[in-house]
Amino acid sequence: MHRWGFGVVILGVVVPIAVLGLGARHMSEDCLYLNIWAPSVKHRGFRGLQKAAVMIFIHGGSCDTGASSVAYYDGTNSVRNHDDLIVVTFK
């Protein structure tokens, strides 16, 4: 027993953001997704094989919170607004 009246195996306060659900529309027990967003050839115009920056985001969350359906993991707007960017997320 800890001097504050509870032991180390008792679950403490729940993190508030976990309770909110982060706006996830769909949850699944599948634990790994690789999402890749890249501009279409039509969108990139006639620049040929121009190099593009790759932004990689590896989500934390301790396999406790979050989902790949959460809006801020969606790279659609980033790719739409930057024709020289590829967005990769792991969740």
TrEMBL record:
It holds the Pfam family COesterase. Signal peptide: none annotated. GO terms for molecular function: carboxylic ester hydrolase activity. InterPro entries: AB_hydrolase_fold, AChE-related_enzymes, CarbesteraseB, Carboxylesterase_B_CS. Keywords: Hydrolase, Membrane, Transmembrane, Transmembrane helix. The keyword Transmembrane helix applies. The chain crosses the membrane at residues 6-24. GO terms for biological process: antibiotic biosynthetic process; monocarboxylic acid biosynthetic process. The keyword Hydrolase applies. Residues 26-90 form the Carboxylesterase type B domain. Coiled coil: none annotated. Gene3D superfamilies: alpha/beta hydrolase. Belongs to the type-B carboxylesterase/lipase family. This is Carboxylesterase, type B. It comes from Penicillium roqueforti (strain FM164).
